[in-house]
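**Fold tokens**
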Amino acid sequence: MRTIVKLSGIIAVSIALTAGLAGCGILSRDKPETDAEILMGQNGQTLWESGLQYVKIVNRDLAGTANDHPAAISSDELRTVLGALYVNERTGFTTSENPLFSASELQILSAALSSGLNQAKQNEDVNFVTIGSFKGLIAQERKTNSGRVFMSGGRLNIVFGLIHEIYRDKDLATGQDIDRRVNPLLPGSRKSEANLATRVSLDSGQSFYLDPKTGKERSDWLVIDIATVLAKVKERKTGDDGTVSPELLQDVARSKQETGNLRQDVGNMKEILFDMSGEIDRLKQEIEALKATKR
């Protein structure tokens, strides 16, 4: 009898595994805190800290032009600016633009970075390490973002150390706990470019830093014109007359297209699984034939 692997069965197993992991606490809930809760534990240069995650005011890593600090940027403005950052990622059969920061990261960073930039001196930066929960191919995945933040030339600068780096507690090869004293989660540095597997997808008001020494762009160093980004986000939400803007309609159309692509990918998966079941049947028949010849 022909064996057919059903896609619905695979999906059901995936859902069950996800629910089980969440119930065991392995997949933590990505729940935003309030601004007051974030800053309540503020202690000196440490603006927020939770396990390996933190937002801290630190001395700048390289001497040079003084930072434009202290800088008055509201948490709402930072939430909008950081929420406008996206990365290109491939999941399964499709490549899509995904938010750089999760909802929880946005809540924490907008409050803590706003406070930090308002307190920092001209020779200080604000470093951060955060771990967000993002949708994966089967289940939620924890990904790490880290960076060095400062204002310079009237623009917000973020030098990334990590972008959507999969966070793991154990080494995949050895199964041993990863010693973060030896393998720390580091922010970016002015001194050298980080080797990032994922990079920010640039939009209006966003650009990569042009290194004057090499004449090349650094994809780990993002320079943001805050006013331009805020204006673009507002424009995309509504037109000048309060109607839905063409850009927003394009975003909706793009989302529909991505949904269509996903449906097509699922259809392709069904065909692949069907072909696999046929191949398995063929191999079974060959094995039975070989057994019969040996009798």
Summary: Helices lie at 7-24, 35-40, 75-83, 103-119, 226-237, 246-294. The chain has a mean pLDDT of 79. The chain is about 40% helix and 25% strand. The longest helix spans residues 246-294.
